[in-house]
Amino acid sequence: MAEDPSPEPVSAQAETGGRAHLFNDRTTERYRRSVADGVGLVAATVARTAAPFTGVSPARLAPDIAAVDLERPLGDSAAALAELERVYLRDAVYFHHPRYLAHLNCPVVIPALLGEAVLSAVNSSLDTWDQSAGGTLIERRLIEWTAGRLGLGDAADGVFTSGGTQSNLHAMLLARDEACKAVEKEAATAPGGPPPKAEILPRLRILASECGHFSVAKAAAILGLGYEAVIPVPCDDRRRMRPAALARELDRCRREGLAVMAVVATAGTTDFGSIDPLPRIADLCARAGTWLHVDAAYGCGLLVSRRRHLLDGIERADSVTVDYHKSFFQPVSSSAVLVRDRTTLSHATYHADYLNPARSAEQRIPNQVDKSIQTTRRFDALKLWLTLRVMGADAVGELFDAVVDRAAEAWELLAADPRFTVVTRPQLSTLVFRYVPPPARAVSPALVDRANLHAREALAASGEAMVAGTVVDGAHHLKFTLLNPETSLHDIACVLDLLAGHAERYLAEHAPAEARLPAPRAS
Ligand SMILES: *Cc1c(COP(=O)(O)O)cnc(C)c1O
């Protein structure tokens, strides 16, 4: 955008009503001030944020938000920002804080925030060339770059999506339609011709590790296959898919006349960060002629890390999910789905007369809508573009390597701490563990479960730190997701002390009462 050194014409300043707020050549000064005010407020808030959360409860916050009269605008952004500080910023959950250890949310890099500001102001829509021009080419370059890092080969392509959930849905859509095509082709010469789609769909199955992401099951439901179409494949004790179990399921499906439309391997499970053995899974898929999808929503950061070898085998995938908003330190949303064979993307192509007529395709005018399940779509790729142009891929990889290193150190800490048991040594940056009372204290497993639940809730309510929780083998566990290189081992040790303190106090309060109760029931 050109510099605008001259003061705005008085007419624009004086303009009232909605027009004064439209962003255009006459309102650039208002835009500049307004955005700078917002940036200033966020910067000041972050500068003085001493904890990841205030511990506010929905009951305390809801009346403040309900009391805002949406029929009475405040008129200027300063007043609206002051109100926003009260109803949102003051009590928001801050992922940049080193004691935010809960979900797969990363602190974000500044070049990406710059990208976010630019992309929303220009407001390109990445469906067609005539709504984005260079934006389309920039997104394509980044898809090419990512496909290159994955090693998918010259025929690869893909598209940015809103997140891993959408990427997985998109990949399953392509796999489903490829499977239907294969069944139809095979039966083309059969008497009566190929079976109708309605007969093929109920026979389709997806094999995914029991530790895979739930969005795969959701995708199966959305695609008309039902949740039951996803068959969970057992994992080993480090929570990686067992290839022998996968081989058995592939065999069983074949014997039962079921068509496995896709095997979903996970490169970085959400709970354990475990990476399925990709080369062996790829062998089995090749032998069975099955689509291999690799969900690398979390593990994609390895593409730029010194641990790239952990993804070996991913180059054999038919489709891959990457979430830059998890391990590339990008703001939400920034994600992509990639495919080895670009022609498969045509399963999501529809020619609309008003938008992308077949004529444009013939004229080779580039567009991304032919590859996407969205129409109007944000230019999220710009954030990654500026990140690579300002910092470079190696700097992003260093950040991810730092959190993986930290998780390894934290595992040592946990493994040596008698107050906790830890499920598995991490490959990436999560730790799943559980508070356990000293053996001398006879406490029921149900109460230990409740003490772990309580520890997490009490910690969040205190606002001092935030951790996640999950259930492993029926027992409540605590979970650290480390995505912040600023989190030190000291932070982790402090949070462990806080958790143990909450759990111990809970047991001290409840264990005597439990002793007087009849036999405890598992909750
Ligand atoms: C987070 C995650 C997803 C879902 O991604 P969103 O961006 O949250 O939609 C899918 N798969 C795995 C392994 C994940 O960790």
Describe the structure.
- With 523 residues, the protein is an alpha/beta fold.
- It has helices at residues 10-14, 28-47, 58-66, 77-87, 110-122, 134-150, 164-186, 197-200, 215-222, 243-255, 278-288, 324-327, 358-362, 381-390, 393-415, 445-462, 489-516; strands at 100-101, 157-161, 204-209, 230-233, 259-266, 291-296, 319-323, 335-339, 420-422, 430-435, 466-472, 475-481.
- Helix 6 (134-150) crosses helix 14.
- The model is unreliable at 8-13 (pLDDT under 50).
- Bound molecules: pyridoxal-5'-phosphate.
- Pyridoxal-5'-phosphate is lined by residues 104, 163-165, 168, 213, 215, 266, 268-270, 295, 297-298, 323, 335.
The top level CATH class name of the largest domain: Alpha Beta
Shape annotation: globular
Low-confidence stretches: 8-13
* CATH superfamily (homologous) name of the largest domain: Type I PLP-dependent aspartate aminotransferase-like (Major domain)
Query: In CATH terms, what is the fold-level topology of the largest domain?
Result: Aspartate Aminotransferase, domain 2
Helix content: 40-55%
Instruction: Please give the largest β-sheet.
Output: 7 strands, mixed
Bound molecules: pyridoxal-5'-phosphate
Strand content: 5-15%
Question: What Rg is obtained from the alpha carbons, in whole angstroms?
Answer: 26 Å
Class computed from helices, strands and strand pairing? alpha/beta
